[in-house]
Amino acid sequence: MAKKRLRAIMFGPPGSGKGTQGQLLADRFDVPHVSTGELFRAEIAGKSAQGKMLKKYVEAGALVPDELTNAVVTNQLKRMDLRKGFVLDGYPRNVEQATHLNRVVKINIAVQLRVADVEAVRRLVGRVQCVDCEQVYHKTDSPPIKPGMCALCGGNLIKRNDDTKNLIRKRLETFHFMTEPLVSYYRQKGVLLTINGEQAIPYVFEEIMKKTAKLGFKS
Ligand SMILES: [Zn+2]
């Protein structure tokens, strides 16, 4: 029998570690990791027509409209061999986007990383990021060897400007209102995996691997 290929999405509140877990999952199954954040940055850097539109929203700190997000992600998916599988992270962000995605490709795993607001805030407030390689550190959970300096490339560590308490609360509200309805959307499709995202990174990944194995996915 042909190996069942992973066509997964990752979702969870900011600070739930979906980028990290998405990358681990993609590496383990040897499939591409498609991060909307990275796609947006690449489009903006490439100065495409879509990139120029994206830039306006990103710089204003505004939500990118569904139509534009759908177009950027769909373009990327069309360039890939979807039969080989993938892990999508940062998309879909709401049920409208999920409905659009469902017309392009059928998802067979939706990983929901559950993290309570109080823990998400704690994680995000302590987070710093390298200006050069974008490696993320946390003041107490994963501190850099030298304060203020990236252990990988020596770059400066700064707080992301959307990691202030007020903005974090706003992002969490948006998540509950906009993204959380994906739980029932994907539960109805029978592909929802709910994971306790408050554990340490290796344990979160272990839980994801156990539950994907139960669904018949072998890495
Ligand atoms: Zn760095």
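^ zinc ion complex. Residues 130, 132-133, 135, 150, 152-153, 155 surround zinc ion (CB under 6 Å). The two ends are 15 Å apart (CA to CA).
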